[in-house]
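Hi F.,

I've been meaning to write this up properly since the lab meeting, where we talked about keeping a consistent format for the predictions we share between groups. The idea is simple: the sequence comes first, exactly as it goes in, then the structure tokens exactly as they come out, then a line or two of notes. No screenshots and no reformatting. I'm using this chain as the first example so we have something concrete to point to.
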Amino acid sequence: MKRAVASIVVAISLTASAEEGFDDDGFDDEIIEVVAEHATTAKGTLYGSMDFESHYNINNDKDLSSLKALVDVIGEYRLDNGHKIKGNLKGYHDFIYASGMSNYSNTPDGYENEINLNELTVEGSINSRLDFKVGRQIVVWGKSDSIRVTDVLNPIDNRVPGVVDIKNLRLGRVMSKLDYYFDELNLSFIALHENRFTKTASYGSDFKTTVDKATNKPDDSLANTGVALSLTGAFEGYDLGLYFADTYIDKSYLDVASGTLQFDNKSKMFGVAYNQVVDSYLLKAEMAYFDQIKYTNVTDTKPRTDVLIGLEYSGISDGSLSYELAYRAIDNYDSNIYAKNNGWKKQEEYQQVVRFTQSYLNQTLDLLATLSAFGKDAQDGGSARVSLDYAIDDQVSISGGLIDYLGGDSPALDTNKDNDRIFMKVSTIF
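Output, unedited:
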């Protein structure tokens, strides 16, 4: 990691001298979508954002739960041979833990300060049909905007569920990627060198009241290198993707004897994704099959099948309305799976997401409303979020909103119901 940080610092320094993110929850640290006039030369560019963010809890006694300063820096440098070095460095400091402004008795691990080299790659073309990309990167599979089914290659930051969309939560992973293009098709081969897993809530935070367990994660050795293949195509009116991955899935299980969370949950995934445009509608469908998954207190592995269907309507002026439904089924179900250490997983589970977006005032004011619910009849719990984002000018914007965590029949989700919060952010880009 030290070498990776040094590399991006060198790339950024060169640019400056030239002038200048499978989580079963399906909830989507935040990648900032930057729109700015970049300080660009023939060799490189450097841009990013500085944000100030605050969360205030409505229902519990924590009150102010976050007061962060965040920085997101993106750099790109073009080598003389045409290849490019790209990097994304993210970091933050949360002032509440040192200032005495909060009611937290301890500082959860990694919550006060964090530096994340989320992406650092070298990429280029070998010939007119063959491209390569090596380094920590994000590769998105599937067609869904809200629920992950075939999108299994990158973990996410899920420490505060539901506040940020999935597209802004993915964490980079070291990969070697080859892309071969022919006709309308793109064939990708990926070697997965880094075994990185989703960041979940730590003890002492709003979403974790029990002491963290010890973990045992596979190292990044050659023997633990995963492989992935995809064949995607964009045709007239529709897109199609076929996917295969053989790697550690983003799910732990508890070794009861040692009390350690194990992450050696390796599975083969076979997936397909499809979307089609019909007038003002976008139809979406995904399916993924996992050949073996380990669960706590279950001796044998279990296959699982995930299916998603979705519909998005864009016939609204400067807006859209979408609905997605996911169904997950564990084959050869064992009743021991329905336990706390397995997240109270049922044999069959449903997740539904309704999403509405609308822009106003010449697209300077953006409204987003999202409802995510689990259960066939939305009885297991979920969350409802509404937010507004206003662009003051090309560099400065303010945003804020409210998220309501809905209690329900699922013990895993019902514990979140007292964490409702108001969130606010001021962003400036450079």
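Notes:
The CA atoms of residues 253 and 296 lie 5 Å apart.
Residues 1-40 have pLDDT under 50 and may be disordered.

If this format works for you, I'll send the rest the same way.

G.
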